[in-house]
């Protein structure tokens, strides 16, 4: 078996490198496991390059009824001894934890897929064992520093820098990617990103044409995606679009296309919370596909309020108007005109990502079973995947070669909740025949998630599903099947940049709020002293009791003027907070200065990890252990020093 070489003397020379100091403290990135994971990945790539005759998928005509190799390859590498000689290590040294022998680690994650040493760890390195002896705290500090330097020397983007970038993968719930046996992908806006102006603009055009044919006045209306962002809710009873915080309190609202004042928002929604379970009233904008519908609805609300809608259409309220808009857009999708136009010129609508197929190739070669589960039909799926994938795959691979199973017309979310008839697609024209059991390498229509679990012999948290729709892809698969989940949210890249650009604005705003709190605290104390004085009682302290009446009144007057001016300034700055992302709605993930948006709460609740695009997995490895960050509580900061709490 081919070997991958690592020069151990070179690593040893790194041990003497001074520790990196950040802010007066030692910063140690525990990334030795990421270095090792990258070596394993490179070894697999090198093996494939050196041995092009290694087993590859054989395709028979259209059906490509190949059987993927399921046996796990053992990793082999060479380590150099202290004398510079080379010592071979491989199958006799490493073993992989199987699904029948896994344990659960201290973070509650399965150890399936972890690499283990068969030999005594210290015997594996001979003369090098001295570097691994001693207190583990000291050994870890040295090895982590060496690993960090090696990552930098090899030109690898480490996990620390990858996470702190617009294209990081962010973790809500700890996920050991090594324990994942299968990864399923949605297609639209997940494996394939559309140009929103082109795709949603075209959907909007067809929707307007259908509304016009139904008798609605649409002349003079135009597609403006800046009016709407993902994560808003349509209030079908009041004709509003609203943005709520994580608790469901409405923070911003728009009636038709006109933003409402804070006072109007308070008067309308001050006594109620957004409850997405009430589907007759609320419609959550889960994905980019919702943009054209929400925009068309907002514009038609304006027309309804202006009395422009003909009485021939009957008596319409805001809820009835929403049904009409939804029907018009549904016709655009169902009648096939929209997708036919996109299929005829995919280059106008799709933004290819050359790195994406390579990310999936890494996962497949690491032993993951890859699945495509999409609601799109076969013809559309095949055309768009060929356009987006084939030109970026090596060795004349076809997009089908990446996937162990493809499911089209899946009918999500029902796909995750119940069973539907399963059909096998058997010809290039999309001819299907009934099928009762799915097999590896097959192309199917319909079926169910339970069928996939049974066919692949993987279940529950052994499967990671990746999609862009909070409900259809992420929530339902987690709630009903306990699959692990990843959300794709392309807007994260722009939001990350907007947050950086707004840093100075937010720092100034927070400073003003802190000053208001200090001034306000003094004002409140003086107000209490005045209240007690008026009742003939002493103030809080002797000094406060002895304050001259005039001095007390003048100080309170001055403080009140300062606070009122601060309120005016803070109010204007809060209204403009987030305008670098969207001038009307602010940041995607935030509601107000301090709190998370309702969308962000949904992401944290249902998505174990989230990122802007699938190709971001290239910055990590198929063996990555994603650890969630510490969650702060209101009483966490600031904490007193030890011994001062009393």
Brief synopsis:
InterPro entries: HAD-like_sf, HAD-SF_hydro_IG_5-nucl, HAD_sf. The protein is an alpha/beta fold.
What gap, in angstroms, lies between the N and C termini?
65 Å
Gyration radius, to the nearest Å? 30 Å
Please report which band the strand proportion falls in: under 5%, 5-15%, 15-25%, 25-35%, 35-45% or over 45%: 5-15%
Task: Briefly note the structural class of the backbone.
Answer: alpha/beta
Query: The biggest beta sheet, please?
Result: 10 strands, mixed
How confident is the prediction overall: mean pLDDT? 84
Biggest β-sheet: strands ordered side by side in the sheet: 8-25-22-21-10-16-17-20-18-19
The percent range for helix content is: 25-40%
Q: What oligomerization state is this entry in? A: single chain
Shape: flat
Low-confidence stretches: 1-30, 45-89
Count of helical regions: 19
List how many beta strands DSSP finds: 26
Q: Helix and strand layout, with pairings?
A:
Elements: E1 4-6, H1 8-14, E2 21-22, E3 25-26, H2 32-50, E4 77-80, E5 86-89, E6 94-96, E7 115-117, H3 136-154, H4 159-163, E8 169-171, E9 175-176, E10 182-185, H5 196-213, E11 233-235, E12 240-244, E13 250-255, E14 258-259, H6 262-269, E15 282-284, H7 290-305, H8 318-334, H9 337-344, H10 356-365, E16 369-373, H11 378-389, E17 405-408, H12 414-417, E18 422-425, E19 432-435, E20 442-446, H13 449-456, E21 463-467, H14 470-481, E22 484-488, H15 491-501, H16 503-534, H17 542-545, H18 549-576, E23 590-591, E24 595-596, H19 598-606, E25 609-611, E26 625-626
Parallel strand pairs: 1-4, 10-16, 10-21, 16-17, 17-20, 21-22, 22-25
Antiparallel strand pairs: 2-3, 4-5, 6-7, 8-25, 9-26, 11-12, 11-15, 12-13, 13-14, 18-19, 18-20, 23-24
């Amino acid at each position: 078996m081919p070997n991958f070489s690592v020069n151990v003397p070179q690593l040893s020379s790194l041990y003497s490198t001074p520790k990196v100091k950040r802010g007066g403290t030692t910063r140690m990135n525990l990334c030795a496991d990421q270095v090792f994971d990258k070596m394993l990945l490179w070894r697999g790539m090198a093996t494939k390059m050196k041995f092009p005759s290694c087993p590859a998928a054989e395709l028979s005509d259209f059906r490509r009824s190949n059987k993927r190799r399921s046996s796990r390859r053992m990793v082999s590498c060479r380590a150099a001894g202290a004398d510079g000689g080379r010592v071979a290590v491989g199958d006799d040294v490493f073993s992989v934890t199987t699904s029948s022998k896994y344990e659960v680690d201290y973070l509650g994650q399965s150890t399936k897929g972890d690499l283990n040493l068969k030999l005594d760890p210290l015997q594996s390195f001979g003369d090098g064992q001295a570097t691994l002896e001693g207190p583990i705290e000291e050994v870890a500090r040295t090895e982590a520093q060496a690993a960090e330097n090696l990552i930098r020397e090899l030109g690898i983007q480490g996990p620390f820098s990858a996470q702190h970038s617009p294209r990081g993968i962010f973790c809500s719930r700890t996920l050991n990617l090594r324990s994942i046996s299968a990864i399923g992908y949605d297609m639209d806006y997940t494996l394939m990103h559309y140009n929103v102006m082109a795709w949603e603009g075209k959907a909007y055009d067809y929707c307007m044409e259908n509304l016009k044919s139904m008798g609605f006045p649409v002349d003079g209306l135009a597609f403006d995606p800046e009016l709407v962002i993902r994560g808003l809710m349509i209030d079908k009873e009041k004709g509003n679009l609203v943005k709520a915080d994580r608790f469901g309190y409405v923070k911003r609202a728009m009636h038709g296309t006109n933003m409402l004042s804070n006072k109007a928002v308070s008067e309308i929604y001050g006594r109620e919370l957004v409850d997405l379970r009430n589907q007759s009233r609320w419609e959550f904008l889960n994905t980019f596909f919702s943009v054209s519908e929400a925009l068309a609805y907002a514009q038609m609300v304006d027309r309804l309020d202006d009395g422009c809608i003909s009485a021939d259409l009957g008596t319409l309220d805001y809820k009835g108007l929403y049904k009409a808009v939804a029907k018009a857009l549904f016709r655009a999708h169902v009648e096939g005109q929209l997708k036919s136009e996109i299929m005829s010129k995919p280059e106008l609508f799709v933004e290819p990502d050359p790195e994406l197929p390579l990310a999936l190739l890494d996962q497949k070669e690491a032993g993951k079973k890859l699945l495509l589960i999409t609601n799109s039909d076969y013809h559309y799926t095949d055309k768009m995947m060929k356009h987006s994938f084939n030109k970026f795959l090596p060795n004349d691979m076809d997009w089908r070669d990446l996937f162990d199973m493809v499911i089209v017309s899946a009918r999500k979310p029902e796909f995750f909740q119940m069973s539907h008839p399963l059909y096998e697609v058997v010809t290039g024209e999309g001819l299907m025949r009934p099928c009762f059991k799915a097999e590896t390498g097959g192309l199917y229509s319909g079926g169910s998630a339970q069928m996939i679990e049974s066919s692949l012999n993987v279940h529950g948290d052994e499967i990671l599903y990746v999609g862009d729709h909070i409900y259809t892809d992420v929530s339902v698969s987690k709630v009903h099947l306990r699959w692990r989940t990843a959300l794709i949210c392309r807007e994260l890249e722009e939001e990350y940049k907007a947050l950086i650009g707004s840093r100075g604005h937010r720092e100034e705003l927070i400073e003003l709020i802190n000053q208001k709190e200090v001034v306000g605290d003094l004002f409140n104390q003086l107000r209490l002293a005045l209240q007690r004085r008026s009742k003939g009682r002493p103030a809080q302290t002797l000094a406060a009791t002895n304050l001259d009446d005039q001095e007390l009144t003048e100080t309170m007057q001055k403080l009140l003027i300062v606070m009122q001016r601060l309120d005016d300034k803070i109010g204007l700055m809060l209204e403009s907070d987030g305008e670098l992302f969207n001038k009307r709605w602010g940041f995607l993930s935030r509601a107000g200065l301090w709190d998370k948006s309702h969308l962000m709460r949904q992401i944290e609740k249902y998505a174990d990890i989230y990122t802007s695009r699938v190709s971001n997995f290239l910055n990590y490895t198929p063996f990555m252990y994603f650890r969630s960050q510490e969650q702060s509580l209101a009483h966490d900061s600031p904490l007193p020093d030890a011994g001062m709490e009393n």
